[in-house]
Amino acid sequence: MITSKTISNGILKALITTVLVGLILFFFYKIQSVLIYLVVSFILTLIGNPILDFFKKRLKFNHLFATIATLFIFILIIFGFIMMFIPLILSQGENLSLLNTTEIEKNIVQLINQITVFLDNHQIDSAQVLKEANITSKINFNFIPNFLNTILGTISSLSVGLGSVLFITFFFLKDRLIFILGAKKLIQNNHEDQILNSLEKINYLLSRYFIGLLLQLFIVFLLYLIVLFIFGVPNALVIAFLCAVLNIIPYIGPLIASFLAAILTMLSNLGSDFQSEILPTTIYVLIGFWIVQIIDNNLSQPIIFSKSVSSHPLEIFLVILIAGFLFGILGMIVAVPLYTIIKVIGKEFFPENKIIQLLTKDI
Length: 363
Hints:
This protein has a domain at about 190-363. It is an all-alpha fold. The radius of gyration is 26 Å and the shape is globular. It contains 14 helices and no strands. Belongs to the autoinducer-2 exporter (AI-2E) (TC 2.A.86) family. It comes from Flavobacterium ranwuense.
């Protein structure tokens, strides 16, 4: 029988639970920087594990020296990236006025006026539509500088905590066996082997995935850069860099990158004649970018991703598509890692299921 005391106890428990959950979320919010450091360190650890194993198995380093050598490689890559790319991106970003919203608006207004004149000269009514639509008042000019400043700001913020990230990564690499032994003590004996096998496979597959992702972005960056150099586009490095970063978003990212490349190419050639120089160069760049995307979507991306996570390219495409419909852009970004984790867990805990057998036959 439900009494007033039972109801009050239930309400009290619900309130206590709500307060505790709120306090935990508030605590996580306050230490969000630490959580970011942990996530970055975890990703670096996944990328570093194959390098660590190479030093140990091929070069016969002991575990400590292999860990130090792996960390040293990370330091060299990060330092080289900062010294080579950041100053160039900053200088080219200033040349392109990407760090100044007012200057961007002024340049785009000038560009739209040139487009309007071009359309008027060819008796195209859409020129009047451009004027009536007043596009310049509807465009959020903060997008480009905010995007670039967010990337550079993230790198700068990361540099502040770089020591913490490298310190955590060092112990993640060095003491991974200790962490595994610690996990064993927390796991029930009847599931110990399954969970440990899952963790080992997840670690292996995600290590390959993140390395594959970096390789794919680097290939796209180089191809974009070659296209821009071929057609003599100024500020090629910053345009290629921004468009390559957008490729982190599967399928939608390259479309955004094409639009961004077209706008930035026109802005880079703003002092030239629109009909004879700006328009043809922009068309050529777009064609070049589409060719790069065809290569990436049909060769490098499916091969790299399917090999790294042992999944069929069509399987990856459908997973990313479904995740995009359900959870938007963020879902598309995390779809492949999460799907890989689910597949590994499914194979370990439900090996007799026919569907899981079909999906995990290559794992």
